[in-house]
Every structure is written in C-alpha cells, then in structure tokens.
Amino acid sequence: MTLGLALHTHGKISGVDGVRILKLLDDDEWAASPLPSHQRARFVDDGWIGGDHDEVRLSAPRDARVIAAGDVVRLREGSSMVSVVWRRGARTNSLFATERCNSLCLMCSQPPRDEDDSWRVSELLATIPLIDKSEEQLGVTGGEPTLLGDGLTAVLERCGQELPDTGLHVLTNGRNFKDATAAATWIRAGGERTTWAVPLYADVPDIHDEVVVAPGAFDETLDGLYELACNGAQVEIRVVLHKLTIARLPQLAAFIYRRLPFVTHIALMGLEPMGFAKGNRDRLWIDPVDYLAELTTAVFHLANRGMAVSIYNLPLCVLPKTLWPFARQSISEWKNSYPAECAPCVVKDHCAGFFASAGPAWRSRAVRPLQYEDLSHEMA
Amino acid sequence: MLRSIDLMARSQSLVTNARGEYAILSRADREALQAGRLTSEHARFHDLLALGMIERPGGGGVGLEAAAERTRKAFLLDGPALHIFVVTLRCDHACGYCQVSRAATGAEGFDMSWDDARAAIDRVFEAPAQALTVEFQGGEPALRFDLIERIVLEIEQLNEIHRRNIRFSLVSTLHHLGHDELAFCRDHQIHISTSIDGPAPLHDRQRPNPTHDSFARTVESLARARAVVGHEGVAAMPTLTRAAMADPKAVIDVYRELGFASIFLRPISPYGFARKTRRAIGYDMGAFVAFYNQALQYLLELNRRGEPMVETYASILLRHIMTPFGSGYVDLRSPAGAGLGVLVYNYDGQVYPADEARMAAESGDRRFTLGTVHQSFETLMSSPAMRWLATGAVAEQLPGCRDCAFVPFCGADPVYHAAAHGDPIGDRATSDFCTKHMGLFQILFGHLAEGDPETLRTFTAWAFNRARDEVIDAGYVPQ
Predict the structure, then answer these.
(1) What is the pLDDT of residue A380?
(2) Close Cβ partners of B253 (under 8 Å, ≥ 6 residues apart)
C-alpha cells in the first residue's frame, strides 16, 4: 500500500443517476460475484464499466493509483469526483457516518458541519454489502455517529448481517449514551464485534469541557461510559496528547484504572495537525519530547495494572526506548508519510512516521534518523 | 464520606473516601479541605475534585462511583469461598503457641469421621461462590492423608456436576508426606504451605518434635516435596514469637537460603495457648510493628539490589490501597470474613466461622460454634453465633474504625475482638488487631508519601503480583 495515497481523484464519468456506489472487480471476480450487477463494475479496455446494462463508465482517472480492483467507489451524477469509500488492503477503512457533531474539539481534524446529511445512511447501507467479507476491522467515524440515531442502529445491524466476522470500531464522544434506552439499542445492534472508542481528556470537567468546547460534556461522557459498561460493551478510551491534556495525563490514567477498569484499551495519541488543530496551534502545541515524563508515568501506571495501552502517532525517535513496546503504526496510510531524512533510519519500518499534513511548525526537535549505534548505546 | 489521619513519620495527612481512593496532603491543606476553604486556584484542587473529595457541580459519573463501591465489596455475593477441613487434631509437634489445637499422635477421638467429612462436602457446595478453596489443616493433616485423598476425590467427582473452580491447599509440617502423598498433591493441584519459624535453634525450640530435629526434617522434606510438586508448589510462613523479634534479618535470611520467593510476616495469634505461655513467647503488638518496619526495610533493600523477595502481607495491604478491587483476603475485609468468607469444619463435626473461633472454642468458649456439619448451610449462616459475630463485622460502622482513614483498606475481626474483649465489637484502644493494622498502614503510607522510585517499583510488583524486573517503571503512584 502506497503511503499518502489519496482517497479521491477525478475522472471521466458517465451513466450515473443520482449517486452510485460500485464495487470494482477484476474479470474473474466479476464473473463469480454474487453482487447484483447494478452494484459492480469490471475493467474493460481503458476504463471501468458497470451497472445492469453497462451504463456506468469510469475512465481516465487523474491519479490511476487511487482506484484498484476490490475497492468500493462512490460516483455522483454531474461530478468528475471518484471517492474511494472502502479500499481493499488498507490498514484502516472507515464508514463516514455524519459531518455533524455535538462537540467542537479544539484539535478536531475533521471539523463538523451543521447540515442535515442523513442521506449518508442509505449510502452506507448500500456500501456495506460491497465490502470484502474478509475485512478484519472496519471503523465508523464522523462527526458524531450517534447523531444518526436509528440510522446508526441500521448501519450496525447491516454490518452484522453482511460482515459477521468483521470487528467494528466506532468513534463516539459517548455523550448520547447517557440516554440508557438509546445506549442499549446501539450496543445491542453493535454486538460483541463492536468496540466503542470514547475520548476522555481529563479526570476533571473543566479541562475536558474546555478541550471539547462543550460545557457539561465531561459529565455526559462519564454517564455514557457507565451505560456502556452496564451493557457489557467493549470500550476503548482515547486521549489526544497536547498542552491542555498533558498536565493531568498521569492522574487521568489513575482515574481510568479506578473508575473505568472495564475498558479494554487505552490509546494515547499524538496530535494530528489538521482541521481546527491548525488554528489552535498556540493553545495546543507542545513538543512531545517535553511531555515524555507525563507520558511515561501514565503508560506504566496503566501497563503495570494490566491495562492494554498504546501510543499512537508518535515517531520512535521521539520516544525513550522503554516506551517503544507501546508505540503503534497508527496513522492511516492515506495520510501517512516519512520525510526524506528518515530514509537511513534503521527503525523506520517499525515507526508510526508522520501525518502528511504536519508542516515544520509541528515537528519535534527530537526527530532524527536512528542508527544501530543509537540502539546499542541506550540498551547498554 | 471523607476520613483523614495524620501520617506519623511525616508532616502530612492522609485523606480517603469510601471507594478507597486517597490523597496525601500537607496538614494545612487537609485542614483547608475539611473547612471547605480549598479553592480552585490551589495546586491540589483538581486532584481532590477528580477523587470526589471536593464536590463537582455537574453530578455526572455518579453511576461509575457507585459501581466502584459495589466492585470493592463484590466479594460479599460469593459467600464463604474458603472451606477449612480439620481432618485431625493429632500432631507430633508440641508447639508452645498451639497447645489447645493439638492432640498427641496416639490419642483417640481426634480424627474427623467420614460421615462428618461427607456432610461438610455438601456444605462446601451449598456456598454460592464460583471459586472455592478447600484447605486441609490440623493438627498435622498428613497423619490422615487417607482421609484427605478421599475428600479430594469425592469433591472432584461431585464437581463434575457443580462445575466450580476449586483449589486445594494443605497446611503441613511436610514431615509425613512421602512420595505417593506428594504425587497425589501434584496430580490434584493441592498447594502446600508449611511452617518455618526462623533459624534452626529458634525453630527447634518453638516447634519441638519427639526427635528434636524439626528444622532439619523440614528442610529435608522441603527438598523432597519440591522435587515432586515443583519449587513453587510449597510456600512457608513463620510464626513470630518474642524470640524472633530481636532479629528480623535472621528470619528472612532463612527463607532466602531455602529459596523461597516470599515470606508472610504475621504475629502469633492470641488464641490457643495458656496465659503462662503468653508471658514467655508473646509480646506487645507495638514490638511487632517495630519488627515489621525493620523487616520491610530489609526486604525493600533486597529488592532494590535485584533480589525479588515478597512480603505477602504487605502485598495484600498494597492491593487494598492500590487497586479498586477487593482482594478476597478473608482475614482482612469488611464485612469480615468470619462465616461470611470462611467456614471451618472441625474434626468433631462442629462448624466454626474462622480458625481462630475454633481455637477459642477449644479453650472452652462455646459461643463461637455455628452448629454441626449435618445442619444446612442456611441454618449455619443464620445461627445465633453468626448473628452475634455479625454485630462486629462491618468495620465502617465500628466505633474507632468508622472515622479511621485506613478503614477502606482494613477490615473487621469480630472473632478476635469477641475472644479478647468479650464482644464482637471490641475496643479499638486496646485492640492488638487495631494496633497492628494502624502500624502497618502508617508504615506503608509513609513509604508511598516518600515516593522513592525503587520502593514504588517493589510495591507495584507486590500489589499487582508481577515479577519485579517486569516492572520497568512504577509509573504514576497517587500522592
């Protein structure tokens, strides 16, 4: 998989009424596919041809690498845009539930838009059957997916029917789970295959609410987490690391262990310099090397207590070696990159690397290619 | 409810809440907190807000807080999980601290009958706990290994239907366990624990056997046992008499030399020996606390140097302090383990709520008897003795305990207080149980407040049952 490969390109498109979600297949797969012909396409001569009567044509993509056999694409009448809504072989694929959100996080990489986009539900329901049954893990993201209400229930149930062996990973701020009835419905629809990933930015309301720019959010999220626990849901806690969350990170780790001992995973995540984060750089930016003490003490607090903890989005050269076992290659390929100076680094293949969007203003002063001598020296 | 106590070794105070969460504050900050004067600008404000020690206006998370309290007391739903069978009172040792719970090896009428054993097995399965421990004690239970085998096999057969998780343990001098008996222990996962009171002269003086060679025979038997059940299959603990108080290192060094990974430092219990003997081998509980403090220092030093020796009682207390869960340890919990966590089936078919109750009863105090093994579990649990002991079983309600900041980590011991003070509530000011635990919690919180990184690594390894070199860094430990 090529890093930094976009999920959109433009091409020559014809024969689409409204919106069409299509599974692209090579000849053998196309011939054997049980999918209705309306929803699949095959490659003929110089382009993709699909639909019941071969009415849909897609050719001359501006970046030919963006679309490949196995992918699910979205085409729209009157537009040259080709969107890859599911990519075969990608480390992460997500269903984008909504652009709406009831929080307004200072570092949101996907700033919400307050428009009715409930049309997405029917597109997601059409997309899900086109995803490979062998998909191990599928994300559900937004915006805040619970704002779909019954639509979220429908999406989760469709996943259960079409992709029974696929784990689901739903990103939600958890606030709407405070409604016990709604919570029970979503959790039942998600079933055992679903992990609910809920952000918690502090152990006290004022800091958490400041970060998510929503008064009362902390209390709602805690009550939502309680409902998740009562319903036996699998819960992951996510903490984005920045200046406002670092100060109480160790205490937050203790809070998670004591009040939320049921959580199955805690992800401590380096900041993604996208969306609102760019405009709020002054309030958020702290060089990761300047928060290693807090990060280390929080990670070991959790790990010693048998809690599964991961560090996301931070390159290995910034982390002390004691934290390497917790670091994951967490950045989705389409937004992942390694600058040229990383080429000689001996641990590059194990490193999360960088967000492609990260300019020099977001670069740790500790970034450097590591050599074998670096490893032996510190291990001695 | 907030409780506080001054830490003796430091100019600080400990504040705790009902969930067993704590904050170590300066005395001035503690006063400000209790007077409601600790404001949002204060450096500790957020810590105390997060712990619920300062009220939050929003009121969210109440469900989680209540769940944390329920979790800590969840052991209650299990009922008695530890079932002790005293298969014989006969023993070839004549230990001074055990006069009333032994009989001579040739004495008659001191073995459990099969009829009684079989009835006790029914009581075991009437207890609601999924995880059960069945322990064999004496006297010297190995003198009736035939009965142990029969009980184990019967329980295993019945468990084909009941499907509980059952562990067996055996408290023995080891001397009478031959290869066949040890092989049976290995094949049925019977964990063995034995007594080693210190260096040979001390051990032999305290634990006289007919051939005056108890220590040598114990060491020899230990090697034999380990060869069959494995090194980890045998644990040991000392009974600490006055003679041991002078030199904690000597006792610990014996355990090191014999290759034990842990030692359980516990004082002699005040039961089971005559007043005259008490004067000879007993001691003031303050002396035990001083001994424990020195012993702990020595063990921490060993751990710091890379020798991962565990003090088992500290690991239990630290689990109570450092985790949100109950430890399941029946001798230190509230509501107390007596009857609610333990049942003892005596050789004569009487049922007691604790080993100590059995010993008190052997001294002639019959108030501690729940009934006989032939009565139903429900009858035993609603017996007059159980109702009587229950009046002193909830530490959070007891005078002297209900305001103590250590109470979330401590427990109630109605059997001890009934035996020593005449009623299950007892008097904390003169209670050895209280003196011991106040002393030990002061010592442990003193170390937590001091925050030495190596000590915290050791404590973390002990509390979370990890190899010490696996704990690369203690991580955050609340202050």
Answers:
(1) 40
(2) B199
